[in-house]
Structures are given as C-alpha cells and as structure tokens.
Write a structure and sequence with these properties.
Layout (H helix, E strand, L loop, with lengths): L2 E9 L12 H7 L6 H5 L7 H9 L2 E3 L8 E3 L5 E10 L8 H21 L4 E6 L11 H13 L5 E5 L7 H6 L2 E4 L8 H16 L4 E8 L14 H5 L5 H15 L3 E7 L12 E8 L3 H17 L18 H12 L9 E4 L15 H6 L9 E6 L1 H9 L6 E6 L11 E16 L9 E11 L4 E6 L8 H6 L10 E4 L6 H7 L1
Parallel strand pairs: 1-4, 1-5, 5-6, 6-7, 11-17, 12-16, 12-17
Antiparallel strand pairs: 2-3, 8-10, 9-10, 13-14, 14-15, 15-16
Helix pairs in contact: 3-7, 4-5
Length: 505
C-alpha cells in the first residue's frame, strides 16, 4: 500500500512589542495559501523553504516496513502527499484570537478528513515556533497536541522550527521529532525541510526515538550569534566564537548514526510569555537516550558559561549595538573618508527589524540621516508607509516635490512622525524573489512602492506591506546598486544580517 504523508505549514513569528495585530489578511497578502495537491506539487524543485524541502525529499518510499535500507525511488511505486494547508505570514504582532481559531481549523480539518479515509503513515509540518495569539501563548504546542490526538500515539509527527523558536514542553511531548534551523542568518530553510523528511524516513522504518530537551534561562542577542562568522570576525569580536563552535558540534551530532536531529533554539527575544529561555533539543534512537541527554546538557552548559560572549559592545565594528546617531556618524565617516570607500556601508536596524516582527516605520535613523549631507552616494532607507506611497502617487508622481509626514503611524510608542520634503522618484508594484543570502528562495510582495529623495541625498523607499526590508533585491528594484561605493544602507534587520552583505561583497 502507498504511504500517506500529511504535509502542512503555519508559519508566523510574533513580536509582542509590535502593537499591530496579525490577521488572516497578513497570510493572504504575504503568499498564496496552499491547499490542493497541485499547489504542493508546484513546490517540487523550487527550493521553496521547508515545505519545498519536504516535497523534494519525499521522492522516496519504503518498499516494505523492514527498515531504512529498503527505501527505493519514488518512481517505482505509488506515494501520496496529503495536503493540509500551507499558510505563511511575515513577522508581526500577536495574532487576533478569531483569526487564530479559524486558521487552526483550516490546518486541522483536512488532517481529520484524511485520517477518516484511512490511517495516515506520518505527518510533516513546518511551524516557526514563536507564534503567539491573543488568549493563547502556545498556539503551536496546542496545534501539535491536536494533531497528536487526531492521528494517535503511533503515527510519527515531525515538525521543523526556526532557530528562534520558543520551545515548550507541550511541543516536545506532542511531536515525535523537532528539527530546527542550524544557521543564523537563516540560510538553511530548504535544507531543514529535507532534514525533517529524512527524520520521518527513519521513523517510518520502525526506529524508536527519545527526545532530550534541555532549557536554560538565557535570551541571546542576534547581533553576535552569527553561526557563519569567519575566524577573523570571531577574533575581532564581531561574533561569538562559541556560537560558531556550537554550530559545528550540531553538524557532527547529526552525523552520528543514532541521532535523528539536533538543534539549539536561542528563542525570539521579544515575547512576553512563560517558559521563556533557550533550548537544546536532540532526538535520538531510544537506546541512546542517555547519551542524547548528556549531549544536550553539555551543550546547554556551554552556552550558559559563554553567555557574556553574546553581549554586544560598541567597541566591535561588526557586532556592536550603537545609538542611532553614532551608527550614522560612523557610516558618514566611512562614505566620505580618505581613502575613498570601496563599497557601501550597511547599518542593521535591529530596533525596527521587520524580520523580527517590528512595525517597520521607525524614524530614529531617518532623523539622523537627514541631519547630514550624503555627497559620495545616496543613503537608502526602507519604510512601511502605505500613506506615504499614496501621497507620492496623488501629487503627480515622478519628478514632483512633496512635503509629507512619514513614520510613527504603525507604532506610536517608540517613534514619532517626521515631516520632510522630497522629490518623488520611481512608483511601482514591489515584488521580488530573494536570490542571495538570508531568505534565499522566498518571495515578497510589498504592494505599491515609491522612492522619495530629500535634498540631503537620502532616498526613502516607501512600501505598503511588511516584508524583507533588508534584501539586496529591494534596493535593486528601487533602482539602486546596494554595493555601490559610498552608499549608506539601512537594512531593517538585526546587525548580524550585515554578514549577508559582507559575504556577497
């Protein structure tokens, strides 16, 4: 009989400092909601995140239940992916209670229906791991528990999670295996999906497993937690050497024949929930449970002992946390210094990082940018402002001068509006697929967009919808080379994501 594997995705990362609630519309505008077999088949070969990794890696089937060694090619027999629902939203505030309840049912209803037709063989689901809703601090744990109740105790459930997940005991108990990203910045989303499907292969071969779960009271700043940092960056203090070493230890752990998956969650810092903290999770063959527990405890101890390494300092050029004025002053000095700059200068705006769920319309760095003249190249800063885009279009479009108020609309607690005058440049429908670095393979639709250039040569890239406001493709689509000498770029992402630009340079 053909294997029946249910696959689904419900992906959203919450930032409790963002007052803008996540609704169903956030999911509908970010990416098409996948529901049919045709939707899932279209992911094949597209390297489309974890779900794409699931689909590509499921090109196999066990010819018998005798074990992993008896797996054969997909084309030799029948196999069936049972589509649940594929829902993705960009990081934002807490999910509305009504939207949470309705969308939870959208992914559970097809699971119930599939199980009623015939017992499922396995479940693959990709979650972020740091989604919270109004009235529910652990919606993903609750979802996995519901799935377990539907399919029963013996059906393997494998769940992939972002490295910045908030792992709870409910999640660990409900899933058979949790498989986390290994990299930060996250360049292994697709590969994590493949790892999850490979773990399911072993479980379908009859392997019995146990999960070691070790939580420790630490929240680690993203700015110095770059798993891909070079040896020189570690020596310079731009990144924690311990984080790089831990990444390689996880790779070695997963090479051990008795380990199905190994990961470290450094959690989403901007959550107001119980059970907060970082975690080590190792899923291993049941007869190696003691070794897995020892390895998890040892890794957790290493992170705890090295916790001071993760505190950013303004002395390190690559990993420091600087006030807005100091960061812009350094960028200005570089862009106008002697010798002439050989490339651009990137400031990671961790305080308004849309990648972490911030609103995306802060004005602190913009105020500093327009206090200086940028003669060597433009200073580029993205901002979410549908009102600003509408004003640029209403005034007559490209070439027109306009005075308007920008920012401080989505978040009025930490940012105030800024009135300025500029010349409208490009107007367009902003959508792009990321080809390089973090989020490679992901597509963003940011709605109508406009550029506005001030007399200081500051170019504000206004978009209507939140998304990847750090991607090279955004700046290129706006008409600028993000690597041109003398340019200053504000990337709305933690400073650690500057590593993406450094590697591309």
């Amino acid at each position: 009989m053909a294997l029946r594997i249910a696959c689904g995705r419900w992906w959203q990362e919450t930032n409790d400092l963002n007052p803008v609630a996540t609704t169903r519309r956030n999911f509908e505008t970010y990416a098409p909601i996948l529901k049919t077999s045709e939707d899932f088949e279209a992911l094949q070969g597209a390297r489309a995140g974890e779900l794409g990794g699931f689909v590509d890696e499921l090109n196999w089937h066990p010819c018998s239940r005798g074990g992993v060694d008896e797996l054969s090619a997909w084309g030799d027999t029948e196999a069936e992916i049972i589509p649940l629902c594929g829902m993705t939203a960009f990081s934002s505030g807490r999910m509305e209670a009504a939207a949470y309840a309705a969308m939870r049912e959208e992914i559970l209803a097809p699971l119930r229906a599939a199980q009623a037709v015939a017992p499922l063989d396995g479940v693959l689901v990709t979650l972020h791991g740091a989604m919270v809703a109004h009235g529910q601090d652990d919606p993903e744990g609750a979802l996995l528990a519901d799935m377990r109740e539907i399919v029963g105790a013996d059906v393997p459930i494998v769940c992939t999670l972002d490295l910045h997940c908030h792992v709870t005991r409910t999640m660990v108990d409900a899933a058979t295996a949790l498989v986390l990203y290994l990299t930060a910045p996250h360049i292994d989303m697709y590969e994590t999906g493949q790892r999850g499907a490979r773990a399911l292969k072993r479980l379908l071969g009859g392997e019995k497993v146990a999960t070691a779960f070790c939580k420790f009271p630490s929240i680690m700043p993203a700015e110095r937690a770059n798993t891909q940092a070079t040896a020189q960056q570690q020596l310079d203090g731009a990144a924690s050497a311990q984080r790089v070493a831990a990444y390689h230890k996880l790779l070695k752990l997963e090479q051990l024949p008795w380990v199905l998956s190994a990961g470290v969650s450094t959690t989403q810092p901007w959550l107001a929930v119980s059970e907060m903290g970082s975690s080590v999770i190792i899923t291993a063959a049941a007869d190696h449970a003691a070794e897995a527990a020892a390895a998890a405890a040892a890794l957790a101890e290493e992170f705890w002992e090295a916790r001071e390494e993760y505190m950013p300092t303004d002395a390190s050029c690559g990993g420091g946390l600087l006030p807005a004025a100091a960061a812009v002053e350094q960028a200005h000095a570089y862009c106008h210094g002697t010798p002439a700059p050989s490339g651009s200068c990137v400031i990671g705006d961790g305080s308004d990082a849309t990648t972490s769920g911030a609103p995306g319309d802060a004005t602190g760095l913009l105020r500093e940018l327009i206090s200086r003249s940028w003669a060597s190249g433009p200073a580029l800063i993205p901002m979410i402002s549908p009102q600003g885009v509408a004003a640029c279009e209403a005034c007559g479009g490209a070439g027109e001068e306009i005075t308007l108020s920008l920012g401080g609309v989505l978040d009025t607690r930490f940012s105030a509006p800024l009135q300025l005058t500029g010349t409208v440049g490009k107007l367009w429908d902003c959508s792009y697929k990321v080809a390089r670095g973090h989020c490679a393979g992901m597509a963003f639709n940011l709605g109508r967009a406009a550029t506005l250039r001030t007399e200081q040569n500051v170019v504000i890239i206004l978009v209507s919808v939140s998304g990847g406001l750090f991607c090279c493709e955004l700046f290129e689509q706006a008409g600028f080379d993000p690597f041109s000498a003398g340019s200053a770029i504000i990337a709305k992402s933690p400073a650690g994501f500057r590593a993406t630009y450094l590697r591309l340079l």
